[in-house]
Here is the input.
Amino acid sequence: MSTVSVVAPASGLKRRAAKTPDTTVTDSALVKRAVKAAALGNAMEWFDFGVYSYIAVTLGKVFFPSGNATAQLLSTFGAFAAAFLVRPLGGMVFGPLGDRVGRQKVLALTMIMMAAGTFAIGLIPSYATIGVGAPILLLVARLVQGFSTGGEYAGASTFIAEYAPDKRRGFLGSWLEFGTLAGYICGAGLVTLMTALLSADDLTSWGWRVPFLIAGPMGIIGLYLRLRLEETPAFAAEVEKAETDRPKVPLREMITGQWRALLLCVGLVLVFNVTDYMLLSYMPSYLTGQLHYDETHGLLVVLGVMALMMIVQPFAGALTDRIGRRPVIATGCAGFLLLSVPALLLIRQGSLLAVALGMGALGLLLVCFTAAMPSALPALFPTKVRYGSLSIGFNVSVSLFGGTTPLVVTALIGATGNMLMPAYYMMAAAVVGGFAVRRMAESAGRPLPGSAPSVAG
Here is the structure.
């Protein structure tokens, strides 16, 4: 019978989890610091990335002049989707690098690149000033954002999952998406405030730049937080098992050796991100561009929905620890399959109450995914390939399905004239997610594959 050795932690950030031959006893203070840094860093990244969605209509006027409002919006969302095309490349670079040199170093690097790409957008001259060079520079900056984001979510969720005790992984992991929602709220709130305070001419001429320029100082703060962390106990144990301090796993093994888990990952991420981007990125433009809803009121409704999701998020995360990830994810899939059309019909009624009820229903269903996925997805893969395989599976799915959602749905509405296309698209995603969750093993309360059991200290 193994005994737990009590290790007095070093001062400051050098405290590590105490380890026994078959158990990791986590340092609660260090776990909280790790969760906070990952969530805050993720909030800053998604503030940068999300602002683009909320100000898409204005960006269309600045960078893609056209007499057709739909063409402008399509061009803007085309640049939005282009960033997702390079996300798998970012995942293939940052993921394996995170499994080799460590999670913390790579997460600091992704923070720098995202902040730089977003800050650069705020400096690009308009189409009226430099012509076709403006949309080209916008596309380049978006590609930098997309490449860096390829290593962000998988790394942050892996980081929290590997620090968290087995019985609290769902609750602690849910704070990652809490941070994402906080970033979205800050981005949307700033855009809403500027839309309300500035005239349309001022917003188009200079006001749109402000949210992007804020990325510079925010990036510095996020980098500071992440540089203060140390590596996860699971990665440290993997390094100790290796003969060198840089364990190497071929990219081929991360794909072919994990193909079953990768397919599950793609299916789960598909339903998670199609619904996420539909609600949080596309719906503000849908309300204004398709339903001719007032911009300020439309954004305020989305802000309220995200605030509601933030309140529910930690409780839903804790629920996944009690009843399991699979029942919670399955509930979300069933809800989107059954309620997407009724919710969108409510939204199309146009009144503030109807829009709020429809959006609120979709937001609560989305919480089933935001609360469960940060702990469920890392548990699909063993420690030695977790960052790399998860990055590849996550980003391939997001690139093909999630990030293209605004572009595809806008095009489908334009081609068919059917304003219920967003609901049908979410229903199709729910079917795919339902098949994936049926094949997924329950991970709640169990050690991560390849890692020792982890308990709270």
